[in-house]
Amino acid sequence: MSELGLQYFKDYLKSRGYRLTRQRRVIVELFLSKAGHLCADEMYRYLRRKYPRIGHATVYRTLNLLKDAELANEVNFIGKRRRYEQKMGQKAHGHLVCEKCGKVIEFKDAALERRQALLCQDHDFDPNEGSLRISGTCLACRKKGK
Ligand SMILES: [Zn+2]
Ligand SMILES: [Zn+2]
Prior knowledge:
The chain is an alpha+beta fold. It is 48% helix and 16% strand. A three-stranded antiparallel beta sheet has the order 1-3-2. A three-stranded mixed beta sheet has the order 5-4-6, with no helix packed on it. One zinc ion is lined by residues 37, 75, 85, 93, 95, 106.
């Protein structure tokens, strides 16, 4: 999966006239090696320990390129704590996103998926992709707020 993703990304960059620089490569390799939701800031801090010259902006820009290449999904659009996840080979799932701390809770619901499939059928619609995202406040933040 990781090798496939890297090759795919290389081809994507080439088609846009970009190169896979060493910095971009380590960012992409880290991203593709991790499952779940990755925070751009956490990735930056982690990478900087090994590659002190890596720039914050490079991490953000590379994640954006991964998104454009359809390899990454942005899960959390709120504030600075952007989170990304791998798009290839993902099972359909939804996200509950906390507006206060940026936490992302993933959920799968077979009944909801069936309902969505029926909804598309009813409207004679051929679905490509779609995921449910609900923003709000998590339990920990609600407790802190009181
Ligand atoms: Zn929270
Ligand atoms: Zn997810």
